[in-house]
Amino acid sequence: MRHERQNPNARNFGLKSRDIGKAGLNALKEDIKSFSSISTMHGRWNRFCSWLKAEHQIKDIRDITLDHLQEYSSHLNERCNQQNLSASTAQNYMSAVNRVMEIARGDRTVHVAPVAEGNLPKRSGIATTNKSVTGDVHAKSLNALSPRTSALLELQRQLGLRFEESAKLDAKKALHEALLHRYINIKDGTKGGRLRTVPIQNDSQYQVLRLAATFQNGRSMITPGQSYKQFKQNAYNELKSLDITFHAERHHYAQMRYQTLSNVACPVASGIKHGIEHYRYIASTLNMSLKEAKTLDHHARMQVSQELGHGRIDVTNSYLG
Question: Is 190 buried (19+), middle (13-18) or exposed (0-12) by CB count in 10 A?
């Protein structure tokens, strides 16, 4: 209870520790009786503390604001989009932060509802809203960004790369591969260092590789004299004032590839519900049987999954619906 603290206005609201992580643990002990629940929520709180220290150098719960929680929610959302975190885990992480903040402060002033306010995905994992960047928004964003960051955005849109993959791309080598083989190998910055190939099938892809090559520094796109972390932070800061995210360009790539491979729009782009309704839509549009439609959808999703660097077809649900 708040009144049990000797000095609730002291560092970390008087939670008997100068360490932000341990202070959160003490807060949970004030309000929760189950040891296992305390342990689980403390682990989730510590993840937030690590992020907070790395991004904002904050070491006192009193300095945590609503903006910090909203930014953390955006960070979790990005990890969900990249398939590094499940929707349920992201919601649990956010809920733990909310709980500690409520106990520590004694109010719900600094609180972000995971889905309604934090825009975290619902637990089904099937996208119901289109996160792809439209052509107009993409064009306006390119004009507002620095040339190097614009090149990164184009790489992600045209090749389906994650941010780290685009930043660490050896564009000159990739251009040579594209001209020679009509595909490029992606390894640097991938999850687990797993190599994958991305097909090069149109002039726009060649153009973006040529553009990226002009900004290449050594073997990557990272600005000379900067670490990857510094480079990423600066690039993300550029996007803060724009109605766009880097990962949304990867959604565009996935949707365009699905349409190319299947000759129909994916569920989230067509507005047709995922599953049987979309199979019927495919069958009707392409004049084929329902079984053929399901097979076509499966093959298109599997190819998209491989090009995005995932090994599971269900991952495409968050991109395609």
Answer: middle
Q: Is the pTM of this model over 0.85?
A: no
Residue 130 belongs to some domain of the structure: no
82: helix, coil or strand? coil
**Considering the domain boundaries, does residue 50 fall inside one?**
yes
In the chain, alpha helices (H): 20-31, 35-56, 66-81, 87-105, 135-144, 147-159, 163-167, 171-181, 203-214, 228-239, 246-262, 267-270, 276-286, 290-308, 317-320
Q: In 3D, which of 271, 272, 275 has the Cα closest to residue 301? A: 275
Residue type, 302: M
Q: Going residue by residue through the chain (321 aa), what tens digit of pLDDT does each one get?
A: 444 666 777 888 888 889 999 999 999 998 888 787 888 899 999 999 999 999 999 999 999 999 899 889 888 888 877 667 877 888 899 999 999 999 999 899 999 988 878 777 776 568 788 889 999 999 999 999 999 999 999 999 999 999 999 999 999 999 999 999 999 999 998 877 889 999 999 999 999 999 999 998 888 999 999 999 999 999 999 998 887 889 899 999 999 999 999 999 999 999 999 989 999 999 999 999 999 999 999 999 999 999 999 877 878 888 998
Helix axes 35-56, 66-81, angle to 10 degrees: 100
Cα–Cα distance between 114 and 122 in angstroms, integer? Answer: 9
What's the start-to-end Cα distance of the chain, in Å? 45
Distance CA 186, CA 174 (A): 8
- One-letter amino acid at 280 equals R
The reply to whether 91 and 166 lie within a common domain is no
Residue 132 lies in a domain: no
List the domain range (segments joined by +) for residue 302.
249-320
Residues 162 and 254 reside in one and the same domain: no
Closest to 255 in 3D by CA, of 182, 157, 121: 157
The structural domain count of the chain equals 3
- Compute the distance between CA of residue 49 and CA of residue 57 in angstroms, rounded to an integer: 10
Residue 217, phi then psi, degrees to nearest 5? -115, 105
